[in-house]
Amino acid sequence: MISICRNALILHCHLPWLRHAESLHSQEEDWWLDVLTDSLLPLLEMLHRLRDEKVPFKLNLVISPTVLAMMRDPLLQKRAEAHLERNLHLALTEIERRTDPEKRPLLQWYADHYHRLHHYYQQRWQGDLVAALADLRDSGQLEIPASAATHAILPLFLKSPTVLHSQIKIGCDYYQECFGQAPELFWLPDCAYSPALDPYLQANGIRHILLDEHALSYSKQIPDAGIYHPTQSPTGMQISYRDVRSSRELLKLEAGLLHDTRYRQAYKMSGEETPVNGLQIHLDAKQHNRGGALKIQRMDSEQAYDPALGKKAAQQHAQQFLKARSQQATQLKAQGIQTPCILSIYEAELFGHWRFEGIPFLEETLRLFAQQNQLELSSVSQLSPPPSASITPVNTVHPIPCSWGEGDYFENWLSQENAWIYPHLLRRAEQLQRTLSALQQNIDGLPDQLADHRSRCVSQMTRELLLAQSSDWAAYMRQADTRPYATQRFEKHLENFDLLASLYSSNEQANTRQLLTIQKQNPIFPQLDWQAFTTTSNF
């Protein structure tokens, strides 16, 4: 039986490289630890539990290489474990301190919650969340696309074939290192697309990409099925399209997920009234309350949060979501679209980090899909219509350049606040390409120690340039509160690049010490080949 509708639920998880080894605590690194604790760990625990219960489901998770690298970094793994232990300790401290019967059950629930997450992280997965992801991927419940190495907005680097090729190739190589298989499905950062990217993607084995719906709806030709069947570009690249209707539904207040008085308040924390000595391990040297304190109140209320009531609300909103998808499927079929394919894309942080009840909402959604036969959860790779004489073959179209950013184009990363960064990036890309080319020609004639030193310098120059190319810095420069950090990070990576270029010539002891210091600062992609920043003559 052909299902009425195939629905691909896609969670998108990206953060920049947030590793500050020089500090015991940093606000930016705590952001990563909170996302890990609030969203990624509960998500993985829930998905593994559903699989253990033999609930049939399929989910798609876009997880950027920088997030994968933070998951695998030994220092950040230790800090993640300590973060969980601090939250557990705080819950236990609050249980001992408080006498009001209204909040003690909630605090006990928190203690049980963090104890369970700590058990999964440390005992079941030994801190290796990439292995936990790979396990779900290999058993067929989870599809994970590859993505660009550091989330660069690729169409903004069309002047540099080497940047494009290296961002795509290093991202694909790291995906294979993590999951043991070369990818064919690719997530373009922020769905930023230009037809000129197709050859670079195809040269790295990519056969299928995801775009925002206006890449097709604004183009000159729109197939009868619109965005609800995959198309292909003139080069043969298969394209699936985000459905804005379902993707934005959870962001509307009337949908419930963002605003329900049974949900947890995002700001009121238990630690605000706790004596400083009770929160000592949650304070930095300046005595500022760090992230991870326990939220204790219901939204728009002074009442204590009730996890059971919040879960019930999430389950009800999941039923509303499924009903809306069923109605949408019926409407599409009435329009003559056979086996429509709906891509619903959401930020992973919405589930757990931004909205605490997001994980029970998603769990109930997956369970409800499994209990009916009109809608079918699908991986993106399975969205092509099944062979049938009644189904139109894949259409060839010319999608337009676009993104899912502000204005549907690239102004979010190319404005008066951030356009100044691109000449710096392109100039250093040319410099690195010249340096690498010279080393390739001369390395066989160099003494072994000098050859090793220069190849390590080139590898780290590549890492620093990749990190400087991250789209996050340009985006954050547009906001007054995040501009200082974004500018500091961007300039620091360029400063490291320039210092490494000055260290390149000689392997004297002072130079090797400085090289090692920079390597320890940013050890992203530790297996990166020193020749990674290259391209082929085909581009």
Structure description:
With 539 residues, the chain is an alpha/beta fold. It has 16 helices and eleven strands. The strands form two sheets. The protein has a six-stranded mixed sheet with strand order 4-5-6-8-7-11. Strands 1, 2, 3, 9 and 10 form a five-stranded parallel sheet that branches. It is globular.
Primary descriptors:
539 residues, globular, six-stranded mixed sheet, alpha/beta, 11 strands
Mean pLDDT: 90
Please report which band the strand proportion falls in: under 5%, 5-15%, 15-25%, 25-35%, 35-45% or over 45%.
5-15%
Question: How many whole angstroms does the radius of gyration measure?
Answer: 24 Å
Order of helices and strands, N to C?
EHEHHHHEEHEHEHEEHHEHEEHHHHH
Number of helices: 16
Shape: globular
Unreliable segments (pLDDT under 50, ≥5 consecutive)? 272-292, 385-391
The total beta strand count reads: 11
Specify the oligomeric state: single chain
Roughly how many Å apart are the termini? 46 Å
Helix share, percent: 40-55%
- Characterize the main sheet: 6 strands, mixed
